[in-house]
Design brief:
InterPro entries: Glutathione_peroxidase (IPR000889), GPX_AS (IPR029759), GPX_CS (IPR029760), Thioredoxin-like_sf (IPR036249). The chain is an alpha+beta fold and 160 residues long. It is built from 4 helices and 6 strands. It is globular, with a radius of gyration of 14 Å. The protein starts with 8 loop residues before the first strand and ends with a helix.
């Protein structure tokens, strides 16, 4: 079984890394888009990050352009948009695919461990969220319409 901390991911600058530096943290991993009706969720995500980051929460943002091309632009443009419009400070990675043959290995892992009750493994839209505990276990999957504040209690429980 693959350890989530060993899965290769791409940084915005094209460099490679893993989630190893996040061991022992509670992770909220989200596929995002800047031109989606759900884009205002960035505000709620940032609020969670501001509230719980010092207690061990990390929000990991993976822009995805697979759903009606709602994450146009370069990684730099996406980052600037998020910082300017939503004052985000949580880590953002290189734009990824979350479904299909070119799906990011991290999202393959997440989907393998938490499928959607109606759709199976496929991610149906931007802002699907996966919650990972301090041991690297995928403990919850939230649909795109789930507002960040609706996850707060579960995050608090994982943070202890």
């Amino acid at each position: 079984m693959t350890n989530i901390y060993q899965i290769p991911i791409e940084l915005q600058n094209g460099g490679q890394t893993t989630l190893d530096s996040y061991k022992g943290k509670v992770l909220l991993i989200v596929n995002t888009a800047t031109g989606c009706g759900l884009t205002p969720q960035y505000e709620g995500l940032q609020k969670l990050y501001d509230t719980y980051q010092e207690k061990g929460l990390e929000i990991l943002d993976f822009p995805c352009n697979q759903f009606m091309n709602q994450a146009p632009g370069t990684d730099t443009e996406i980052n600037s948009f998020c910082e300017l419009n939503y004052q985000t400070t949580f880590p953002r990675f290189k734009k990824v695919d979350v479904n299909g043959k070119d799906a990011c290995p991290l999202f393959v892992h997440l989907k393998d461990h938490k499928s959607d009750p109606l759709l199976g493994k496929a991610i149906k839209w931007n802002f699907t969220k996966f919650l990972v505990d301090r041991e690297g276990q995928v403990v919850a999957r939230f649909n795109p319409q789930t507002e960040p504040e609706k996850m707060e209690e579960q995050i608090r429980q994982l943070l202890g």
